[in-house]
Amino acid sequence: RRAQFNFIADVVESTSKAVVFIEIVDHKRLDFFSGVPRMQANGSGFIIKEDGLILTNAHVVMSKRDSAVNVKMPDGTTYAGVVEDIDMQWDLATIRIRPNVPLPVLKLGDTATLRVGEWVAAMGCPLSLSNTITAGVVSSVQRTSRDLKLYGKDMQYIQTDAAITFGNSGGPLINLDGEVIGINAMKLTTGISFAIPIEYAKEFLRKAEDKRKGILILDGPKRYMGITMLSLTPQIIGDLRARKKSVPNELTHGVFVWKVVVGSPAHNGGLMPGDIITSINGEPVAGASTIYQLMESSVPVLEMEVYRNGMKMKFTVTPESSI
C-alpha cells in the first residue's frame, strides 16, 4: 500500500536534485567571532537551464549593493551567483552560476488545467536543508491581482494550503507530473499560502531574452525597502482574523508584511514580519500597488502607520537604491 499511495515521494525523487539553496551575504556586516560576511537573506530557487540559469523570487535576492549571492546545490557544491534579471513587481528573478557539468533541470508546466483540490508539493531548502517538502491541495486558481488589490500588477495567484516558509519561497510548486506550475511566494498564515503561476515566469524569461537581444523593456522600481508583502482584501482579513485574535475590528485595508530583510531600510526603520501597514505619509495604503508607486517616486521618507499585535504604531522608513 505504501507504493500505491506514495505519489508525493515519487514526485520529490524525480525533481529534488534541481532545487537549490540561495543565500545573500553582506560584505560590510561581518560576524563578530568568525569575521565572515553575515547572511542577509536566504531562500530557494530551481534550475531551469542545464548551463546554470536559476529561477527564484525577486524578494530573495533584492539587497544592498555590497551583497553577494551564493548558491548551494543538493550535493553540497556551492557556486558564486550573479543576479541576471529581476522584476520586482512580478517578484521574479534569475541567477546565473557557472557549473563545470550540465545540471539537472525542472520542466515548466502550465496552470491552464489546474483544478481546485489538486495535490501539489512546495519544495525548497530552508536554512540550507535540501529536499524540504510540504504538500497540500490547491485552494484557489483564480486569486487575481484585483482580488488582492494589486492594481499595478496584472497577475493571478495560486492559493494552496501547502506551507510556504521563509526558506522555501522562491522554490517550485510542483504538480504530480513533476512539472513546475508556480513559484512559492509567501504564507499569510497557517493554511493560506500563495504561489506565482508559472505563466508569469515564462513571460518574465521571454522579456529577459528580449533584453539580451537589444529590445527595449521598461524596468520596474529602482528603490528598495526590503519587505515581502501581500495586499489585504476583506476575504483575507476575515481569514486572518479567524486565526489571529490580535487583528483589530477596524482594519479594512493595508498590506501584510511577510518578510523583512535584515539590514534593509524597512528593518532599520523598525518594521517586523506580521506588521500591517495601513497608511504612508498620511495617505491610506489600498494595497501593494501603493508601495510600488512610492518605490517608483522620489518621495524620500515614508512615515508609516502600522498595526502590530493589535496595537497602532508609527515607523519611518527611508528607501535606498536597489541593485
From TrEMBL:
One of the record's GO cellular component terms: mitochondrial intermembrane space
Tagged with keyword Transferase: no
Principal location class: mitochondrion
Keywords assigned: Apoptosis, Hydrolase, Membrane, Mitochondrion, Protease, Serine protease, Transit peptide, Transmembrane, Transmembrane helix, Zymogen
Subcellular location: Mitochondrion intermembrane space; Mitochondrion membrane
The name this protein goes by in its record: Serine protease HTRA2, mitochondrial
Any Gene Ontology biological process: positive regulation of apoptotic process
